[in-house]
């Protein structure tokens, strides 16, 4: 075998190792960042597979269930007749819109203790986005004429 052929084989082998490594890193990165959106009822029906997946669960915050300790918060999500205790211990404080009866989306993992451990939390105030009731008036827009 000539020295040129040997050099091409070494170069080709190095390129192949790099390509396989990049493919492996891409695959594991996608698996880690993938999250499944489930309802509380679906979460309860998932069995043991719920404990190994990154999940997103939404519901309304049960009134009186919010307990704060610094940036850590525990609360209960309600969806129809289903309740789910949630513990949030993310790096940021919960959003200002996170209140009793607000809609919340918890992103994290379901523990074998029956508690959802959230690393991210999103919320929106239910009353702010509620449809207008009949007879409600809106503020008049300022006139553009002089």
What does the model show?
By secondary structure, the chain is an alpha+beta fold. 25% of the residues lie in helices and 31% in strands. It starts with a helix and ends in a 22-residue tail after the last strand. 13% of the residues are buried.
What helical percentage do the residues reach? Answer: 25-40%
How far apart, in Å, are the first and last alpha carbons? 91 Å
> SS-based structural class?
alpha+beta
The number of strands is: 7
Kindly provide the radius of gyration, computed on alpha-carbon positions and rounded to a whole number of angstroms: 25 Å
Taken in chain order, the helices and strands follow as HEHEEEEEE
- Overall pLDDT confidence: 79
User: How would you name the oligomeric state of the polypeptide chains in this document?
Assistant: single chain
Q: What is the strand content? A: 25-35%
Low-confidence stretches: 139-146
What is the overall number of helices? 2
Choose one word for the global shape. Answer: elongated
Strand order of the largest sheet: 2-4-5-7-6
């Amino acid at each position: 075998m000539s020295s040129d052929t040997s050099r091409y084989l070494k170069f080709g082998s190095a390129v192949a190792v790099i390509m396989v490594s990049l493919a492996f890193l891409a695959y594991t990165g996608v698996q880690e960042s993938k999250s499944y959106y489930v309802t509380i009822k679906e979460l309860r029906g998932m069995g043991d597979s719920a404990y190994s997946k990154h999940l997103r669960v939404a519901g309304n915050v049960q009134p009186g269930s919010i307990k704060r300790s610094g940036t850590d918060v525990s609360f209960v999500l309600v969806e129809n007749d289903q309740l789910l205790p949630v513990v949030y211990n993310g790096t940021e404080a919960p959003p200002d819109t996170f209140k009793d009866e607000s809609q919340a989306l918890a992103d994290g993992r379901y523990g074998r203790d029956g508690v959802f451990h959230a690393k991210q939390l999103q919320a929106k105030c239910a009353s702010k986005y509620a449809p207008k009731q009949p007879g409600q008036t809106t503020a008049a827009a300022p006139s553009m004429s002089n």
